[in-house]
């Protein structure tokens, strides 16, 4: 069993940066693909970024490429999302997710309902 807890959300002006953290419990986490999803008000949950269990492979949705970077530290059971040049349309609740079977690319292509583990989310608000 894996439990995920996000932190690092907040209010930031457009063009600013935030770093989200996802703390995982459960020794099997380091064998899971880790990822970030987001859900804006009135919209469906969407994929943002994913990273393979050894960190060698990453995958991003097009709208965040070049601005967001996902990373992980398996020694600390952590996954991070560095978000730069934030835009108002990045405003959403950001969720950490994990899957023991999906690759990073697969996590980006499959339905969010296919994820095995979820955190409760952290709110990111970008003002214009």
Radius of gyration: 13 Å
**Mass-distribution shape:** globular
Give the end-to-end Cα distance, rounded to a whole number of Å.
40 Å
Q: Give the DSSP E fraction (strand runs of 2 or more residues).
A: over 45%
Write the H/E string, N to C. EEEEEEEEEHEE
State the helix count.
1
Number of strands: 11
Helix/strand-derived class? mainly beta
The mean pLDDT is 94
The helical percent reads under 10%
Task: Give the uncertain stretches in residue-range form.
Answer: none
Major sheet characteristics: 7 strands, mixed
Descriptive terms for the model:
128 residues; mainly beta; seven-stranded mixed β-sheet; 1 helix; 11 strands; 5% helix; 48% strand; globular
Task: Describe, in plain words, how this protein is organized in 3D.
The protein is globular and about 40 Å long. Helix content is 5%, strand content 48%. Strands 2, 4, 5, 6, 9, 10 and 11 form a seven-stranded mixed beta sheet that branches. A four-stranded antiparallel beta sheet has the order 1-3-8-7, with no helix packed on it. With 128 residues, it is mainly β. The longest helix has 6 residues, at 104-109. The mean pLDDT is 94.
